[in-house]
Design goal:
Blueprint: E1 4-6, H1 13-20, E2 23-24, H2 28-31, H3 40-49, H4 57-81, E3 86-92, E4 95-102, E5 108-114, H5 117-122, H6 134-147, E6 151-159, E7 165-173, H7 177-195, E8 220-222, E9 228-230, H8 232-244, H9 253-281, H10 288-342, H11 354-357, H12 364-395, E10 397-398, E11 401-402, H13 410-413, H14 418-484, H15 489-525, E12 530-532, H16 533-542, H17 550-555, E13 561-563, E14 566-570, H18 571-596
Parallel strand pairs: 2-4, 5-6
Antiparallel strand pairs: 1-3, 3-4, 4-5, 6-7, 8-9, 10-11, 12-14, 13-14
Helix pairs in contact: 3-7, 7-12, 8-10, 9-10, 10-12, 14-15
Length: 597
């Protein structure tokens, strides 16, 4: 979906109606909880009710100056970009953005702000968009998402009343995919919060302590005849009523402000009573009842003050703890739902860090805003991990089978980026296939050897039977010839001995061949331990045969293997090589001796 340009006059009724139906770039910083002009709670209320705060004269002047500076700065932006810029409003789905300037191809944009202290500090020589305060990055990322532009020129300038440039600074902002994903997730969560908005939970009054009731000043009059006058009974009643009205369980910023103000007033009352008491004591008049009442009232004020101060601290801690634990429970439930979708608990529990998010904050509203943004970001990160797990799990289901068995650590490696995971999967599957092919080849070779051995045993047994049958036939023929008188008995006996001896020799030859074959098979099955090329060379140097390389092994037809580029040779092949080399050196020495002779 590409951006659609809409023709609207900023500030018109149509413009306001358009903003009410879309998520706007200028509201994105408030949605992300990083705006210096509007809180997230205020944005939720505004979108839910359609009511926005009145613009005062100072704010309107700031808006007017901003528009005037923007118009003056646009030609400077065109000179930097090298193309004409047109201010416009663009829409992409439910997202909208106003542009201070956009090129004809929508590939570059201009965002202008009035130069202020924070921007001067951020926009140093050689700065980029990532050096800007987050609220400006969020606004421009939203603009880039709507327009599809490749980069945005961020310009901040200040002008005189008659249009003379005082100062101008600029830098380029380029889109950030991760920030964009957070913005999209943030708008989705804000949309849910707007739908769940409850007007009854709002307190329109500003969080300022209500005026503390002024209790009558303690008056103690002591006459010469020890008559005590003043208003202690009336003061006591007023103090009791005042204490009764202190919030017993503050639940919002207004209650906390009232309770804290009451505690401060009680401290002043306590100090005032002590002062009046000291004044009375200075007159050395024994007015026990007046002093007792004054002590009681001072103690009453002190007890109420301490209790209120403890209550404020305890309730703030309770609400702060509830806010943090509630957000963590929400995040835990979200992770559990994702694991249910995945079909297994691949996603671990995610610590949202909400306590750290609200550290140092005093206002409950500001805490709620910060926690809401942190919760949205944590859910977004969990969603991203779940999507990567799903995609990577699907990658393991291939035409030749499902390879999940090779990934006992899938919960860890499954969250890798698709390209990285696919490379890992290719390596593991390739290694497994190679190992499996080697195993099958060894198995087939073993079967072939067993079959060959069986055939040899059968052939040997058949040869034994043939030899025995032939010997029996010859013995029978000799016996028949002896009976018919064709052979004399001594000759017949000699012939029978020869036949038996020959049969025994033939059977022994068959047995010997079978033993040799069995020995060869046993030797082939057990070639001894593996030696590295370094170990082999050490042994050969000890025999005076020198060092060799893998090329020498290949030249002599000696089989070897490689493990992580290290050459390995069996003990049997090592002995065979050393024998070959030893015989070769001996023949060479004999040839040299013959030549010299």
């Amino acid at each position: 979906m590409s951006m659609q340009i809409v023709s609207l006059v900023q500030g018109s009724a149509e413009w306001h109606a358009h903003r009410a139906k879309h998520f706007n770039a200028s509201d994105a910083p408030a949605m992300m909880g990083c705006s210096s002009y509007k809180t997230r709670s205020e944005l939720v209320k505004e979108l839910a009710t359609g009511l926005s705060g009145e613009v005062d004269a100072a704010t309107q002047r700031r808006f007017d100056d901003g528009h005037r500076f923007e118009a003056l700065a646009r030609p400077l932006g065109e000179e930097i970009i090298g193309e004409d810029l047109s201010p416009c409003v663009g829409v992409k789905g439910k997202y909208s953005a106003s542009f201070d300037g956009l090129t004809f191809m929508n590939d570059q944009a201009l965002e202008h702000k009035t130069l202020n202290k924070s921007l001067r500090e951020a926009m140093h020589e050689g700065c980029t968009g990532t050096d800007l305060p987050l609220q400006y990055q969020v606004q421009m990322e939203h603009q880039a998402m709507v327009s599809g532009c490749e980069r945005i020129l961020f310009m901040a300038s200040e002008w005189t009343g008659d249009g003379q440039l005082i100062e101008e600074r600029h830098c380029w902002y380029e889109p950030d995919a991760e920030l964009r994903a957070q913005i999209i997730a943030g708008w989705e969560q804000l949309e849910k919060d707007v739908a769940a908005y409850d007007p009854a939970a709002e307190r329109p009054a500003p969080v300022v302590a209500e005026p503390v009731e002024s209790l009558p000043a303690v008056v103690v009059e002591i006459s010469g005849d020890l008559t005590v006058g003043g208003n202690l009974p009336a003061f006591g009643n007023a103090l009791r009523n005042f204490i009764e009205r202190i919030p017993k369980q503050p639940s919002n910023d207004q209650d906390f402000a009232n309770a804290e103000a009451a505690a401060k007033a009680l401290k002043k009352i306590e100090e005032g009573i002590r002062t009046r008491k000291a004044d009375a004591l200075s007159k050395f008049v024994p007015v026990e009842e007046a002093f007792r009442l004054m002590d009681d009232y001072a103690g009453m004020a002190r007890t109420a003050r301490l209790a209120t101060e403890k209550l404020v601290t305890a309730e703030k801690d309770r609400l702060r703890t509830g806010l943090v634990t509630g957000a963590q429970q929400d995040l835990d439930a979200h992770v559990a739902a994702l694991n249910k979708r995945l079909g297994t608990n691949w996603l671990p529990r995610i610590a949202g860090g909400f306590a750290e998010t609200i550290k140092g904050l005093k206002s409950l509203d500001s805490m709620r805003d910060k926690v809401a943004v942190a919760l949205t970001n944590a859910k977004h990160e969990a969603n991203q991990q779940a999507c990567r797990l799903e995609a990577n799990r699907q990658h393991l289901v291939q035409d030749d089978g499902d390879w999940i068995a090779l990934f006992a650590d899938f919960a860890t490696v499954g969250t890798k980026a698709a390209e990285d995971f696919q490379a890992l999967a290719s390596l593991r599957i390739g290694n497994h296939k190679q190992a499996e092919a080697q195993r099958l080849e060894v198995q087939r070779e073993q079967i072939r050897k067993e079959e060959a051995a069986r055939l040899e045993r059968e052939a040997a047994e058949a040869e034994r039977k043939r030899i025995q049958a032939q010997a029996q036939q010859e013995q029978a023929a000799i016996a028949q010839a002896q009976q018919s008188g064709e052979l004399a008995q001594p000759v017949a006996q000699d012939l029978k001995g020869l036949v038996a001896h020959k049969a025994a020799e033939d059977l022994a030859g068959v047995d010997a061949q079978e033993a040799i074959t069995a020995a060869q098979a046993s030797a082939a099955a057990d070639n001894g331990p593996l030696l590295t090329l370094g170990q082999l060379n050490t042994r050969m140097e000890g025999l005076g045969l020198g060092k060799i390389s893998a090329a020498t092994l290949e030249h002599h037809g000696i089989a070897f293997s490689k493990e992580r580029s290290a050459v390995q040779i069996t003990e049997a092949n090592a002995r065979r090589l050393m024998l070959l080399l030893s015989l070769g050196y001996r023949k060479l020495a004999d040839d040299l001796q013959a030549v010299n002779a």
